Amino acid sequence: MTDVYLLPIGTAALLFPALAFVMFVPTAIVLYRRHGVMTRWRLLSLYGGVYYALTAFCMVIVPLPKPSVDVCTNYPTFAKPQLTPGVAFSDIWKEAHHHVTLDALILHNSAFWQTVFNLILLLPLGVFVRIHFRRGLVAATVAGFAGSLFFELTQYTGLWGLYACPYRLFAVDDLIVNTAGAALGWAAAGPLARALPALDALDDRALAPLADGKVPFGRRLMALLLDVTGVALLTPFIAVAGYSVLGAETALLAPPIAFALWFVLLPWLTGTTPGKHILRLRLVTPDGGRPSPARLALRALILSPVLLLTCLGGGTALSLAASAVFFGATASTDPSILNEVASQAQEVAYRLAADPVTGLVLLLPPALCLALIGFFGRVIRRHPQGLGPHETRSGIRNHALPPTRARIRPDAPAQADPQTPATVAAADGSRQGG
Length: 434
Known about the structure:
By secondary structure, this protein is mostly helical. Helices cover 68% and strands 2% of the residues. It has three domains: 1-63, no CATH class; 71-198 and 414-434, no CATH class; 214-400, no CATH class.
């Protein structure tokens, strides 16, 4: 019986690192925009919730039937949903063979443990609603019902059409027990919610040292990575346009033109780059004015080695990722591709072993990029005002706009739990989570 649960848990553990990597940039953008800072506690809480949600979803759908299995023939009784409440308790009584003993009703009663599992499945959701979002019992109950309904519909639709027929049963008892589990989780989390500080209070504590105008290095780095990505995407369009209008020779000018447009012209006209605009940052002079083109050009020139190496390293990583996706999609329809990819990978490995210099050359751009980012990071952290060489030389600063979420006053006491009605109004501004 334990194998039925270990397989979904193992599947979620394998999928989570890839999911965490894909969602990191969007998560960082949302947190920086809403809260002004990305604390490790908020990130840990959010990723913990995502890992739990992925595990719960895998519990509902894994193991998947093999493609060779005809689910319509093998699971004919699952085609009709079970809409009668109380069937789960009838199954427990039948499984006990009408014997009122501890062994028959609980210890060796698979129907009982299935009901307990359904109760536990969404119990962490209630805890998450109370601890992370600081919401009440009604919100936890609604979230539990919505999550359970999504799971049951996923089962009833055969994984949303992936299978011709359902391979698991839609049962209204599961809906009821799952929802009750979320409400129970909210209630059980009361002592923990009162003991733990609110995430908003932790955000305020992290923002306190930045009251003098400093911007977190991670926020600036994220904006820089978005800008580099934008330049990398803009360059091919400029190259194609130049080739079509002026000839092939102008295609070589596409990178510097894209660079100048993105890091000089746009900040001069709008006061910020697109990446910094997304992160709610502006470029200003020490007196708060808009920088001149000369200052912006000097700043971009100092940053150009980092930007160039980031483009090269990022382009290499994107190429490898795109190749992996392409070969994976192709291999699903043509298994012979796997053999070809394996032989090519073996040949590349042999050549790198025979000529290690080639491998070092390929790794040089990303290695230098990381080294330069680390150097800039150390310089920024050591500077009294948190400024880098490109800022001290050009006289351009980053100015952070207020977070999009309405915050409580810094001197207001943080409310740790929305349970007491008297604190609801005072803590209303601190309950916007995530």
